Amino acid sequence: MISRADVDRLLSEDVPAGDLTTDALGIGDCAGRMTFAARTDMVLAGMEVASRMMDGLAVVCYARDGDRLSAEAPILEARGSAADLHSVWKAAQTLLEILSGIASATRAVVDAARPVPVATTRKTVPGARALSQLAVRAGGGILHRHGLSETILIFDEHRLFLAGESLGEIAKRLRRTQPEKALAVEVSTIDEAAEAAVAGFDVVQLEKFTPEAVAELVARLPERGRRARLAAAGGIDPNNAAAYVAAGADLLVTSWPYTARPRDVAVTFAAD
């Protein structure tokens, strides 16, 4: 959820003490309009936040988050004073470009992985997680973890402090202490994954397994429903997503969309 305070921070970052250029030119009270349009094909994200940044302007939205837009498709039009238009112009444009880049990249992985779901990790730029996750949802992805407080995921870095406890012992202990939570564990070898899949965990995260390794693991395990779900993670992108699905992964986990190039949004001004 993006709060009003969050929106205000996005605006104040670009206009910390007013718009010096607009003020110096004395054009702040002039009436005008600006139109946003897709410059390239994209999956749109960030519309609700961008429109909330434009409070005080008369805004007409032509698209919404998750829409697939072709080049030159209109996104929104805003009318108001030149001062209000200039104060929000670049911040809103950049927001839409970056979030639409993440959404478009997410959709590419989702399309390649169908019908297996694609979840993105918490490896976002610190402070930008809510915006990045908004874009993921617009692209059809789901969220792997909002943060450390949400789910239980055991890493090797945790097991270092567990004095050699087996995966089965760890799962039993967590069932006692956190009976309502789903349990996940990350593994890096096929043998460890085979042990974890029947040890009582709900999800086994296969870190940097190749599709061939996933297929080998699946062949060693009981059928779905009698074992943990298998989440392929590490290096997942549109080029290999289908191979992981064919190998038998139940879920794909990726950070790849967060590195996507922004999609271009054209902004045109006119005086009224």
Could you write a compact summary of the structure shown?
Helix content is 39%, strand content 21%. It has 272 residues and is an alpha/beta fold.
Percentage of residues assigned to helices: 25-40%
Number of helical elements:
10
- Uncertain residue ranges: none
Radius of gyration: 23 Å
Judging from the principal axes of the Cα atoms, what is the shape? elongated
Strand content: 15-25%
Specify the CATH architecture of the largest domain: Alpha-Beta Barrel
Number of domains: 2
How many strands appear in the DSSP assignment? 13
CATH homology group of the largest domain: Aldolase class I
Give the ordered list of helices and strands: HHEEHEEEHEHEEHHEHEHEHEE
Mean pLDDT: 95
Strand order of the largest sheet: 7-6-12-11-10-9-8
CATH hierarchy class name of the largest domain: Alpha Beta
Structural class: alpha/beta
CATH topology of the largest domain: TIM Barrel
Q: Could you give a short account of the major beta sheet?
A: 7 strands, parallel
Give the terminus-to-terminus CA distance.
35 Å
Can you give a write-up of this model?
- The chain has 272 residues and is of the alpha/beta class.
- It folds into two domains: 4-102 and 260-271, Quinolinate phosphoribosyl transferase, N-terminal domain (Aldehyde Oxidoreductase, domain 3, Alpha-Beta Complex), CATH 3.90.1170.20; 110-259, Aldolase class I (TIM Barrel), CATH 3.20.20.
- It is built from ten helices and 13 strands.
- The chain has helices at 4-14, 20-25, 47-53, 82-113, 129-138, 156-159, 167-177, 190-197, 211-220, 241-247; strands spanning 31-38, 42-43, 58-61, 68-69, 74-81, 118-120, 142-143, 152-154, 183-187, 203-207, 229-233, 251-254, 265-271.
- The strands form three sheets. A seven-stranded parallel beta sheet has the order 7-6-12-11-10-9-8. Strands 3-5-1-13 form a four-stranded antiparallel beta sheet, covered by helices on one side. A two-stranded antiparallel ribbon has the order 2-4.
- The radius of gyration is 23 Å and the shape is elongated.
- The mean pLDDT is 95.
